[in-house]
Amino acid sequence: MFLFKNLFLKPLSVPLTVTSNNGFHLRPVAQFASLAKSFSCQITATFNNKNVNTKSVNTLLSLSLEKGDTFTLVAQGKQADEALEALQQLFETLMQDDKEIKQIEKTAYSYEGLVIEGEIISKGIAMAPAYTYRTTEIQHQSEMDFGTALSRSIGELETLYRNKEKDENAAIYLAQKELLISLGTHCHTLRELEVKVEEETKNLRGTKLDAKKSDYQDILQRVKKHLGLEVKVTFPDRPFILLCNDLLPSEIDQLQQTQVKGVILKEISINSHTAILLRAAGIPSLVADTQSLTENEKIILDTPAGVVVQDPSSDDFKRARKRRYEDEQQKERSNTKRFEPAITQKGRHIKVFANVTNIQTAEIAKEEGAEGIGLLRSEFLFTDIKPSFEKQYKAYQKIFELFDDITVRTLDVGGDKPLSYIQIPSEENPFLGIRGVRLFKTHPELLEEQLHAIFLAAGNKPIKIMFPMVSSVEEFNQTKSFAQNVAEKYQLDISHLRFGIMIEVPSVLFLLESFNDVVDFYSIGTNDLTQYLFAIERTHSTLKADELSPAVFAAIETILNKATKPVSICGELAGNKDALPKLLDLGMETLSVTHKCIAQTKEEIRDV
Ligand code: PEP
Ligand code: MG
Question: Which of 65, 112, 212, 388 is 20 to 30 A removed from 405 (C-alpha atoms)?
Fold first, then answer.
């Protein structure tokens, strides 16, 4: 435990590192502030010599914490230690669960009409007349004073949050509630709140939080409504594709009650709450500049292709209808057949396993129809605090219960993924340094504890244990004998467990004959393998290695030809539709893909 305790009322502190690619943004900050408020002690966050109160969303956001930033959480007063522990735990969960929203790749498609390109928010194909977003202002009698309107609005957001608690997007309402509390606290009139919102949104411009400006407008409108100044969106009573600059998150619920077929927005980020809610509602949506479109003209919105088609020909409509039909059929089929095996057109059964990062994703994988876990990234347990043996044991035990066939990868950190409690001398090229299995030479105690927890949690199950970043046979042999010594030390029988390696380092390709004698299985990690084949760092901001390059397939072919032990693939390439026919052609029998893509991958296999 990293709490620097003091029995007197001295402050306690803990360092917390932001690990989410999205940084510490509005939704997790709101959950954090909300928990902080449940403790009476003073809790502050310090970063870059700035010290802020963690109970206010706004002040916490003002630290602009990005991935890799470490701030210090300090608590002083009653229950300070409890507060720190609870906040630390919540922070770790928030970081782990915060999914990065990636740009969705477009599928090439051509239309005869005028094509307007856009950025995909949510996939689907729609055909309907365009309708421009409009609002009407309604003034009604209200006796309410500002203070009551404020607390009524906060109450409403709290209810929305509570009612949607099971919904993964419920935190949006909590975020708005906390935002309103922190902006409204020192305001006494509507005008003061308007000025505050104006100031704050101006400060957001050009920052990552710009995407949240509609939340600021949304909370302001909520308060205004209680004061008798209601702004109402009007939607037509027929099918339509909505054209708008932006939408407020609260308007999406209303939109869902209409005959909306699609939404085209002009000024919105794919990370905004509006975008998240549109995706969750399954409304085909695109970010595009639709200035040239006129009201009521019938258009095609083809978001998988990332386009709006103006003036479509009758052939365009036929094509779009066909595409929509195929799309719906595909979704329907993959959903209903998700628990069935994936059999190719030629009758081969391809096993579809899941890559998971924690208990929740393992549970989702099960529900999605995964046949096992091909890669359990155990790093999820190793956050800012070293996990105790018990914590590790319990987590593995829960996950191991879910499937019969499970591959757990031992800790793959170091290099680009530092851990605060391990000291590695700073390296010029961390991707070529002490990472993955190499860490165990310098920190054997970490591997010992992890293996002990895995062995115990495995019980009689033939769990597969996989070492990451192995580059030589000696390295594997040493790590495996280390594992055997751990088992002996704790008097555990591990004869039923299997030991294998990730193939991520090109040297392994030339050593397969020797590896065949010692390993029980292989799993190809194309993310790192591609990085090392092309000498292009996988996180490089401008360079990108082509994972579909013939060089990658040649490497896979070599592995499949030379390996005499089972081979699976768990890098991103396994879930790439364009790679699938080639992978199956080369003889790949087991794919391990991200937990949410199981049903879809199975369906794609059935078409090969
Ligand atoms: C890989 O390198 O392909 C892989 C699956 O491991 P990670 O992405 O976790 O490094
Ligand atoms: Mg890797």
Answer: 388
Going by CA atoms, what residue is nearest to atom 1 of ligand 1?
525
Residue 519 Cα, ligand 2 centroid: separation in angstroms?
Answer: 18
Assess if residue 104 is contained within a domain: no
Ranked by mean pLDDT, which of 237-251, 269-283, 324-338, 382-396 comes out on top?
237-251
296 shares a domain with 148:
no
* Ligand 1 in reach of 525 Cβ (< 6 A): yes
Domain end among 179, 211, 232:
232
Count of domains observed in the chain: 4
Measuring from atom 8 of ligand 1, which residue has the nearest CA? 527
Q: Is 526 in the pocket of ligand 1 (CB under 6 A)?
A: yes
Residue type present at position 425: P
Whether the CB-CB separation of 308 and 299 falls below 8 Å is answered with yes
Residues 503, 443 share a domain: yes
Structural Rg of the chain based on CA atoms: 27
Of ligand 1's listed atoms, the one at least distance from the Cα of 525 is 3
Tokens of 589: 């029998």
What is the pTM for the complete model shown? 0.62
DSSP track, 69-99: -EEEEEEESTTHHHHHHHHHHHHHHHHHH--
124 lines ligand 1 (CB under 6 A): no
pLDDT at 384: 66
pLDDT, mean over the chain? 90
Domain that holds residue 56: 12-97
